[in-house]
């Protein structure tokens, strides 16, 4: 079994997509994040859900979360939504030097190669792509399942 | 709405649990990780699925993933499973100084406080607990959903 056989569909968003729409996508599908691609569908980075929160929560509340109590529930939510509503995904990403290295393997990578790449980069998912054609994504939990099923070690 | 109302059940594992059993739990439930508690059910840290892979994949394969091809599929899987089979969760965790700071809020934390804590620690989930009684876990995507629903901003 190779990476391309394991790859599952995963939400891809463009750098130019609206950040609030992407927040809705993450919320509705309960994803930990999305893969960001450029206009040629070339993978760029991963946008974690926590980064969307980081962008939308006012800085002084992040520094001192007790300040969050100056807002009532709707007021706090409005502040967050307004910060996202006229932004693109590209604007919500961390600066380039702070972005996650995009974990990627080619379609013919073996199960153990996928595991090694994921282990080295401490990432919960890797993108499977050949020449910028994206096959999909493999998660760490899926890979563990494949490894446990493939092994005949008594355990 | 407060953190305790948002908290969802999440797999808790003990430091003394068998690492291979925990790998199976992560695989079966397709979780990105589990919360680790001590014998008094006091939360200790988060064990990400990628750390289980990191522990189980031989070091020389992590350094050079192309070496993974010296194994066939079952052989590679057997190596990984054997490394986990007689280990406890405590042995699989990174050394203390490299562990994730356990992101935690009290049951009465507001939505915006949860978001601020998650944003500050770049974490996809936070543990909700009072005096070491764990209410559950809130994920970043769930929190985005609550924020988007609470806001009346036109968007």
TrEMBL record, chains A, B:
Span of domain CBS: 97-153
Keyword Membrane: no
Entries under Gene3D superfamilies matching the protein: CBS-domain (3.10.580.10)
Keywords, sorted A to Z: CBS domain
InterPro entries named among the record's database cross-references: CBS_dom, CBS_dom_sf, Diverse_CBS-Domain
One Pfam family recorded for the sequence: CBS
Keyword Transit peptide annotated: no
PANTHER family for this protein: CBS DOMAIN-CONTAINING PROTEIN (PTHR43080:SF2), CBS DOMAIN-CONTAINING PROTEIN CBSX3, MITOCHONDRIAL (PTHR43080)
Protein name: CBS domain protein
Species this protein is from: Saccharothrix variisporea
Taxon lineage: Bacteria, Bacillati, Actinomycetota, Actinomycetes, Pseudonocardiales
